[in-house]
Design brief:
Strand order of the largest sheet: 1-2-4-3
Distance between the termini: 17 Å
Number of helices: 3
Structural class: alpha+beta
Oligomer: single chain
Strand content: 15-25%
Largest sheet: 4 strands, mixed
Helix content: 25-40%
Shape: globular
Length: about 110
């Protein structure tokens, strides 16, 4: 699984369907590059979209799957209270059997 940590097209750039085009190209390139660099395939992509600022339309346009929302607490939460913005979680399977592949032993 790979995590898309940042994706931003600056507001003054106005090209129709640019975001979905880039995401589609990125996916194809990532599959090949991941295999070349790490010598094993990648099966799933994941990203988080800040719901206070963006809607995730470009992910929906290229068939990413909306998985739900975060709790707004971050991965190192110790207070169990919201301390950051809620994120929409989006995923993109790269193989039909990604669930099986991701749950296999690492032997």
């Amino acid at each position: 699984m790979a995590y898309n940590s940042q994706f931003l097209i600056l507001p003054w750039v106005s090209v129709s369907s640019l975001a979905s085009h880039i995401l589609g190209r990125m996916t194809k390139t990532l599959i090949r590059d991941w295999q070349d660099i790490y010598n094993h395939p990648i099966y799933y992509l994941e990203t988080f979209v800040d719901k206070e600022r963006f809607t995730g339309t470009c992910y929906k346009a290229v068939n990413w799957i909306y998985l739900g929302d975060t709790a707004g607490r971050g991965k190192n939460d110790q207070t169990h209270k919201v301390n950051r913005s809620i994120k929409a979680v989006w995923g993109y399977p790269l193989t039909k059997d990604f669930r099986i592949r991701l749950s296999e032993d690492a032997h």
